[in-house]
Amino acid sequence: METLNYRNKAQQRAKGSKRQVIVGVVASGNLEVLAERVLPDTDCEVDIRTAAEGFGEVWQAVVADFVERRSPGGLKFSINDGGARPDTVALRLAQAVSAIEGERT
Amino acid sequence: MTTWNNAQSLRDSRKRAGAPYAQGKCVARKDTTALLEAVIRPGDRVCLEGDNQKQADLLATALAAVNKDKVHDLHMVQSGVVLPEHLDLFELGIAKRLDYAYSGPQSQRIAKLLFGGKIELGAVHTYLELFARYYVDLTPQVALIAAVSADREGNLYTGPNTEDTPAIVEATAFKDGIVIAQVNEIVDKLPRVDIPGDWVDFVIESGKPFYVEPLFTRDPGAITETQILTAMLAIKGIYAPYGVQRLNHGIGFNTAAIELLLPTYGERLGLKGKIASRWALNPHPTLIPAIESGWVQQIHSFGSEVGMDDYIRARPDVFFTGPDGSLRSNRAFSQVAGLYACDMFIGSTLQIDLQGNSSTVTADRVAGFGGAPNMGSDARGRRHPSQPWLQAGKEADPDSPAALRRGRKLVVQIGETFGDKNAPLFVENLDALKLAEKLDLDLAPVMVYGDDVTHIVTEEGIANLLLCRNNDEREHAIRGVAGYTEVGRGRDKKLVQQLRERGVIRRPEDLGIDPLDADRRLLAARSIKDLVRWSGDLYAPPSKFRNW
Q1: What residues does each domain of chain A span?
Q2: ipTM, 2 decimals?
Q3: Is the fold of B25-212 the same as that of B220-532?
Q4: Which of B63, B253, B468, B493 is the most buried (most CB within 10 A)?
Q5: Contacts of B422 in chain A (CB under 8 A)
Q6: Domain residues of chain B, as ranges?
Q7: Burial class (CB in 10 A: 0-12, 13-18, 19+), A105
Q8: CB–CB of B225 and A55 under 8 A?
Q9: Given an 8 Å threshold on Cβ–Cβ distance, is B422 in contact with A91?
Q10: Which of B410-424, B448-462, B463-477, B497-511 has the lowest mean pLDDT?
Q11: Which fold has domain A2-100?
C-alpha cells in the first residue's frame, strides 16, 4: 500500500455549494473518490491510497492535468485506489467535480 | 526416361497402405492412429486443420499417438498451433519443422520450444499468405481436416464452421495429397455438400463435435467507460467523416463497444445507413443490436461463432447461408474480402511504437498473427475507387493529380493508453524486437506496420497519421494521444499543440464529445443476457458466458 499526496493551486473555486460527494467504487481496476469542499478557494488537495506501488510520477501528471483542466478550487479529494488505470483515475476525478458542482447527479 | 507421375504413384501407394483400415472410405475411430502411421511418411508436409476457431481435435490426438519410429520429422504447415497436442508432436519428435499463422493459447509454450530448439521455425504467417503458400511451396502431402458430417462417398458437410477447409483440401487433393477427415457423424444424406467426396480419401466418425473456441464473444458487461469513450471518438471522428460503409472489426472490447453504440450513439448522430453496413466479420454477438436495428446490409464471415447458428439461420438476408439454411463461412475468401473490398480495419493491439508499428507479442509469447495483418494493411493491388479510400489517399498525398493518386485503406488502431496490469500501450521499442533477437529471426513479428496505420484512437483523442508530413510529426502525433505513458509524457507540448491546431490530433472536446457522456447506459446491450433478448432468444451463448 502506498500513500501519495498532492497539493496544487487552482485557478478558481469549484462551482456549486454541495459539501461532499462520492463517485466510483473500490474494486480491482477501479477506484473511489470522496470530494469535500473544505479548503480555501484556490487550493486543491488530492490524497491517494493505492494498492499499486511505483506509479507516483503518473499520478502526479494525472493530478496536475486534472487541476489545470477542471479548476477544482476549494476541494479535497480522497482516493481509494484498487489499481485503476490513469484513464479511469482522470475520469473519476472529472466525475467527482461534475457531481459536486451539481451539473449531474 | 523421365517419369511425370511420381506424385500420383506415391498417392496411390499411400491410399493402398491405408486401405486395410477402411471400409470404402470409412475408418473406425480406434484405427485412426494406425491409419495415420500407414499413410504418413517421415518428413511429410502435414496440414493438421485448426485455426483460432475450429479444431480437428480427434486427428490431433491420434497423430500425437503415432509410433515415432514410423512417423517422424514431419513438417507441420497449419493455420493454428492451439491444442496441446499440436506442440506435443514436437516434444515427442514426431514433427520437426513448423510453418503457421496463429497460436493464441499456446503462445508461451511455443516460445519455450522455439528457445529450446525443439521446433525449427519456418515462418509466422498471416492466414492468407499461409494459404497462398499451400499452392506454391508448402503444399501438404497429407491434410487432416474436420467436418460436421460425411456420407459414405466421403462428401463433407462442414456446417457453419467451414473456415479453412476448402483452401486446405483444394491444395492437397489436386496435388496428389491425401485428405483425411474427422466428422461428428456419418449420415445417409448430407444437409449440403461443402467438400465433394472425390477430394476426400478417408473419413473417421469421431462421435462428438469437433472443438470450436468462442473467440469472438465479448461480454458487454466488461466494457469500460474509457472503451466507450474511444468508441464514441472513432464513430464521430472517423466512421462519420469518411463515410465508412465497408469494414472489418478486430475482436477487442473497444470495437465491441463501437458495435453496441451504433444503434444508440450512432443513431443519435444520424449515421444510420451512412456507415457500417457491409462487413467482413465473424458473427459477433455484439453486432446483434445493430443488425436488429437495421444497420447491417451484409456480412461475410471467416468462421462461425459458438451459439450464433440459429440466429444466423433466421437472418439469411444478412449472412451467407447455404440451401440448408446454415452459415457458409470461408476464411480464405473472407480474408480476401477484408483485404480488397473493405475500406477500413479497426482493431486493438498490445504495443505501438513511435513509428506506429504494432505488435501483440510480448517477450515470452509468440502469439502469431491470424488475419489482422491482411485486414490491417493497404492493398496495393486495389484499383476500385470508393469515397473513404479516395479521401484517405488525398489526405496522405494532397499534391498528386487525383487520377494518378492511390487511395488508402483506413487502418485504425484503437485502445486505452494503459492495458492490463497497467502495461503501457505505447512503447519506445516493441517487445517483438527482443523476441526476434532472442530467436534469431529475420523479421520481428509486427502485426500492423506503421506505414499502413492511418489513425490511432485512445481516450486522449485521435491521431490522423495521414496528415503527418515527416517522421517528427508522426512521432508527435503518436505521443500526443499516448496519455500518461512514458511515451506520452515525453511529448513536446508545443509541437503537439500545433498538430492539434492542424487537426492531426483531435481531442474529445475538438469533436464535441464530453468524456463524462461515456456512460455504460449508451451501450445497446449491457450484458450477454441483453444480447439474447435482442436476438429474440435465437442467440444461445456458451455456458461460460451465462452468468444469470
Answers
A1: 2-100
A2: 0.90
A3: yes
A4: B63
A5: 52, 55, 83, 85
A6: 25-212, 220-532
A7: exposed
A8: no
A9: no
A10: B410-424
A11: Ribosomal Protein S5; domain 2 (3.30.230)
User: Which one-letter amino acid corresponds to residue B131?
Assistant: F
pLDDT over threshold 60, residue B479: yes
Grid cell listed for B184: 461428428
CB neighbours (10 Å) of residue B274?
A: 15
Homologous superfamily in CATH for domain B220-532 = Glutaconate Coenzyme A-transferase (3.40.1080.10)
Q: With an 8 Å Cβ cutoff, are A87 and B516 in contact?
A: no
How many residues are present in chain A? 105
Q: What is the DSSP letter of A13?
A: B
**Which amino acid would we find at residue B102?**
Y
Span A27-54, average pLDDT? 92
Nearest CA in chain A to B482: A87
3 state DSSP class of B37: helix
In 3-state terms, what secondary structure has residue A51?
A: coil
Nearest by CB to residue B422, choosing from A57, A62, A85, is: A85
Q: According to CATH, what is the number of the domain B25-212?
A: 3.40.1080.10
B153, pLDDT greater than 70: yes
B 400-419 residues with CB < 8 A to A: 416-418
Cα distance from A43 to chain B (closest Cα, Å)? 24
Contact B516/A83, CB-based, under 8 Å?
no
Rounded to the nearest angstrom, the minimum Cα separation between A56 and chain B is 12
User: B318 CB contacts (<8 Å, ≥6 apart)?
Assistant: B291, B296, B297, B298, B299
The cell for B347 is 482493431
The Cβ of residue B341 has, within 10 Å, a number of other Cβ atoms equal to 16
Cα separation, B146 vs B203, in Å, equals: 10
Q: A61, B226: Cβ pair inside 8 Å?
A: no
Query: Rounded to whole angstroms, how far apart are CA atoms B112 and A7?
Result: 49
Structural element, H or E, at residue B122? strand B120-124
pLDDT, one tens digit per residue, over B203-253 is: 999 999 999 999 999 999 999 999 999 999 999 999 999 999 999 999 999
Shortest distance between the Cα of A5 and any Cα of chain B, in A, equals: 18
Q: Are B522 and B264 in contact (CB under 8 A)?
A: yes
Per-residue pLDDT averaged across B83-108, rounded?
94
State the cell numbers at B315: 437472418
Q: How far from A61 is each of B95, B127, B160, B239, B459, CA to CA, in Å? A: 53, 42, 51, 32, 16
Determine contact: B484 vs chain A, CB below 8 A: yes
| CB pair distance less than 8 Å for A85 and B459 | no
- The helix or strand, by DSSP H or E, that contains position B52, with its residue range, turns out to be none
C-alpha cell at B284: 459477433
Return the beta strands (E) in A1-105 as ranges. Answer: 2-9, 20-24, 31-37, 43-50, 75-81
Separation in Å, CA of B117 to nearest CA in chain A = 38
Nearest by Cα to B354 from B499, B473, B227: B473
Cβ separation A91–B417 shorter than 8 A: no
**CA–CA distance, B39 with B269 (Å, rounded to integer):** 61
Contact check, Cβ <8 Å, B483/A86: yes
C-alpha grid cell for residue B444? Answer: 520481428
